[in-house]
Structure formats: structure tokens, C-alpha cells
Amino acid sequence: MKMKNVTYLLIVLSTTFFNQLYAQEQMVHLLEPSRDGKQQQILQLGENNGVKLLAMASCKQCMPAVYTHNPEASKAYGKTIYGTSGIYVIPYDNNSYISVAPKTPLVAIGEGVWETFLYTNFFSEDKNKVAHMTKKKVEDWAIHFSKQIMKGRNEIKQ
User: Fold this and answer.
1) What is the pLDDT of residues 13-58, one digit of tens each?
2) Which of 5, 53, 72, 144 has its CA 20 to 30 A from that of 155?
3) Going by C-beta distance under 8 Å and a sequence separation of 6 or more, which residues neighbour residue 52?
4) How far apart are the first and last CA of the chain?
């Protein structure tokens, strides 16, 4: 199959997947622009074959980033947490999220306290919340969060 056909097939499948999540859709504003330079993303929360998913894309026809529900971390935190390939999407409040990729120590969620990050971002339906957020606040919140998860995880194991 030619590369052009493979690319087209991936776009069609991802668009179909993104649109078939039977999801709650919302437009979110980003603290840091996405890779394509956009300050807004379409966020969908949904379920596919019994798996809770969070998908984000710059447009309905764009390939989404898809994050899968992490049940253990969600149980420890008491809110639904999503992740993929070392990036975690964590609820900040009712309409906002923090996205992080821990760097040091390079540990999965609940495996240790995070200190530094390869990537952090904040996104919210509320543009005003984004305007008042800083990268430092996001990192501080994520470090505190990782401590909470470790404490919650220890309580679960007892």
C-alpha cells in the first residue's frame, strides 16, 4: 500500500474513531499552544468498547491524541485520570485539566514523586482560568498531585 493511501486510511480511521466515541464534546483553551500552534482544542470524553477515553484534536478532521483511563491512579485520586506513553491528563477542577510528562524521576504515576517535567500544559473551557495560569503553577500543582497519589496508593495497599 502506498504511503499516501496509508496516511489517508489513518486519517479516516482516526476521524471515525474521534467522532464515534459517543462522547461529551467541549472546546478547551490551552496555556501552551499545541504542536500545530493552535490555542484551542476539541476535547471529547467518552467510552469505546467499555474503555473510558479522553481525545483531543485541533479540528474534527485532525488526528486526535487519545488517552486511556488509568483505574488505579483514578481510585487513589478519586477522579478519572487518563494517560498514554508517559503523558497524563489529570482533572484540575470541573472544566480544566493538567497534562504532564514527568522527567525526574522518570516514574509512572503512583510510582514516585515527580520533580521535573518533559512537558506540562493546562487547558480549560474557561479562557479566564487559562489566562491566570502559569507554567510554574502547573508544575507545582503536578508535584503536589504526585505526592497525593503516593499517599493514596499507600492507603489503598494497607
Assistant:
1) 455 454 454 567 899 999 999 989 999 999 999 998 899 999 999 9
2) 53
3) 45, 46, 68, 69, 80, 82
4) 54
